[in-house]
Amino acid sequence: MRQMALPALPWKAIRPRPRWRESALLGLLAVTLFIGSASLGATERALTGHFPTLTPADPRGLALYLGMLLAVHVAQILAGRRTDQLLLPAVGMLGGIGLLLMQRLPQDLVTQTILGRTLTLAQLQLAWLVLALAVVGGLAVAVRSDSWLRLYKYTWAAAGIALLLLTLVLGVDVNGARLSLRLGPLTGQPSEVLKVILVIFLAGYLSENRPLLAEQDTRFGPLRLPPLPYLAPMVAMWAVALGIVVIQRDLGAALLFFAVFLLLLYVGTGRASAVVLGLVLFVAGSVLMYQLVPHVRTRVDIWLDPFATASGAGYQVVQALHAFARGGIVGTGLGAGLPLVGGSLPIPELHTDFPFAALGEELGLAGILAILGCYLVVIERGLRIAAAAADEFRAILAAGLSLVVGVQAFIIAAGNLKLIPLTGITLPFISYGGSSLLTNAVVVGLLLAISDKGVEPPPPPRPPRRLSPRRLTGRLLERIADR
User: Fold this and answer.
1) Parallel, antiparallel, or unpaired: how do β-strands 186-188 and 117-119 relate?
2) ∠ CA 199-283-295, rounded to 5°
3) Which end of the chain is more exposed for a tag (fewer CB within 10 A), N or C?
4) Contact 145, 6 (CB under 8 A)
5) Which tens digit of pLDDT belongs to each residue from 164-206?
6) pLDDT tens-digit profile of 324-355?
7) Residue 232 falls within a domain, yes or no?
8) In a domain? residue 40
9) What is the residue range of 239's domain?
10) Is residue 185 part of a domain?
11) Does the CA dihedral 51-52-58-59 come out positive or negative?
């Protein structure tokens, strides 16, 4: 289907438009984060022997973060955009929780020197959050046409695969996996970018070929599948990306790509048979990988019985389960959890792979349910945007972008809870990491841009008021007197 972009508008046609619901939710968010930061600050002062006060743990950091949220909010008001008003508060709450967690953890977990200044964990996270919010605001305000996405889907796909190949050749090894590219002082994971590129490619291809994929059949035993010639390019692009990621031993990204591919295939074609076949192939491939790849075998064995190697390979999972148990229903409180083991944190890589376990201990079951609720808001708003989209490309793109956030959050939360084998992906907007924050910011910015309902029509002209004979006589006498 051809593009249905909004027409370009002169700046003089743009009228500011209030966003009352978003304003109220951001106000509630500010109060919540202030209370959380004050609670963290009071706990830290009490642990160091000082009298606890209700001063935030990092007033400047909190003010800068809330100020950036306000700037994005005001930018949308001034631009007159009629975009979704729940996405920004939900994402802002998740980012704020992540910032509080990074302020609570030991600051020497991550240090980086930029322009002669050494930044610690919380300072780096705050800097990435500010950049991420700038990306959200920029895309939400500036993007009014999707032609640069839909018309160049193959170019985007080629660029994403080339980036992964470059990582495979020139990447940096992290814990035995080659996942990152280093550019000067900055290090990023290209697999984060590829998840957005995959969604853009699938949305473009499925929207163009949806009638053939949905209506024509290829028999595969008892299953009725879309025509293989039209399905092959899409499967090939996914398989190449998946194969490279598997070679890199980034199993979390591989699982994310596979899940998003199956979900978008169902969204685009409505064929449950394709999903069933995909799940069968997934189980068969998992068994094969378990037999052939020692890294996969280790992850699965830890998942099945982490206590068998509680002081070795299963140490992280066991400590995460203990953290959830200590948290109980309401948690130990911000700053009052994470007892040190041998002078170090109980869970290695806590700031990237296990933030859900840390929050489960300090916020309890109630806290992690609230966090999962924020992710559900992002998914629900994304699917609502997809249902109201102007054409199939925007509908599939919005659905895919929201599912990327939801599937990624489910994978890392389920891994922390030992519901599935642990994978090395980040918790969106909460885990430490610039590439993750910026990529998810692109997701939210595009969702906001897609959700725009267009320029609000001017109000209808007010009908002229009928004047009574008495008032009409009074006005005539006034005009005569003026003359």
Assistant:
1) unpaired
2) 85
3) C
4) yes
5) 778 777 766 665 566 677 766 667 777 788 889 889 988 888 8
6) 999 999 988 888 877 665 556 778 788 888 89
7) yes
8) no
9) 149-245+254-283
10) yes
11) negative
